[in-house]
């Protein structure tokens, strides 16, 4: 009887242990607020991972920069293995994996369809693979839509510069943490300021640390920046995708089967995010226009000036990736 009891207890312990060891809980850091398209996609990703792994892998999504105050911090936490996942812009990731600059050069894509044909094709996959193979400690899971980025500044900064001539001399513009982006503003005559998180742009403009920044309609609106810098100049200089990243260390804590599920599920959420993106882009634009902001549309000739001035970035940051860049341009012939 005593023997039987011991056996039953031992079995119960083994079962409990195997259940406990099968359950892994990760955290996902997101800069944007609840309800933003990328946050909704992160949550959908977490839901599907838990469902498809039958509860073996759980992901808790933390929106609003709660876990990491900047995208760089989140990336470094992934490298250290103290965070499982994060959704960031491809722009800061290029500081760790320079090849990523090749898919975010200015005026690279004709439109969103061209961009997605690239991201969902061989080039997009090869870039995700490059992240994993770079020794960065990061795994690129999928891309999310982030539209096109344009400059926004205060009315007095707008008067001071000459946006019609792509001349931003004298302006300090907050840029993402990526040398290529800093150089981009220098080519227009301005000064790029980094080290300011997206959630600090509003106060940095209000206190005069910078004259403006650059971003897509949804971030410009959602962060409230349009209230501090009410002139939006639609030069659409870059289309920088978002990337969902996993920590390589975290990947070692799940089975191969579950890692495959995570990768597959991430790809599936791209379509969902794109739907949410389209809705948010339209509503953000409406809010900004209704608020009485000055939205400056540029002529084709003026846009060509921006493109021309930014062109040196292709040599300075794309010289090692000319094949990829040419392939991207070739894909654009269909659009
Ligand atoms: C947004 C992007 C954020 C962040 C931000 C920024 O478009 O979604 O992840 O990179 O831009 O400019 O810092």
Q: What does this 3D model show about the protein?
A:
With 335 residues, the chain is of the alpha/beta class. Helices cover 50% and strands 17% of the residues. It has helices spanning 2-22, 37-52, 71-80, 90-93, 112-119, 122-133, 155-160, 179-187, 201-206, 217-222, 248-251, 256-290, 300-310, 312-318, 322-332, and strands at 24-30, 57-62, 85-89, 138-144, 149-153, 172-174, 191-193, 212-215, 231-238, 242-247, 294-297. The protein has a 5-stranded mixed β-sheet with strand order 2-1-3-10-4. A 4-stranded mixed β-sheet has the order 8-5-9-11. It has a two-stranded parallel ribbon with strand order 6-7. α2 links the parallel β1 and β2. α2 (37-52) runs antiparallel to α12. It is globular. The model is unreliable at 1-22 (pLDDT under 50). Beta-D-galactopyranuronic acid (GTR) is lined by residues 31, 71, 88-89, 146, 176, 198, 215-216, 219, 242. Beta-D-galactopyranuronic acid binds next to β3.
Short structural summary:
With about 325 residues, the protein is of the alpha/beta class.
Keywords:
4-stranded mixed sheet, 335 residues, binds beta-D-galactopyranuronic acid, disordered N terminus, 11 strands, alpha/beta, globular, 50% helix, 15 helices
Strand content: 15-25%
Fraction of helical residues: 40-55%
Radius of gyration, whole Å: 22 Å
- Structural shape: globular
* Main sheet overview: 5 strands, mixed
Layout of secondary structure:
Blueprint lengths: L1 H21 L1 E7 L6 H16 L4 E6 L8 H10 L4 E5 H4 L18 H8 L2 H12 L4 E7 L4 E5 L1 H6 L11 E3 L4 H9 L3 E3 L7 H6 L5 E4 L1 H6 L8 E8 L3 E6 H4 L4 H35 L3 E4 L2 H11 L1 H7 L3 H11 L3
Parallel strand pairs: 1-2, 1-3, 6-7, 9-11
Antiparallel strand pairs: 3-10, 4-10, 5-8, 5-9
Helix pairs in contact: 2-12, 8-14
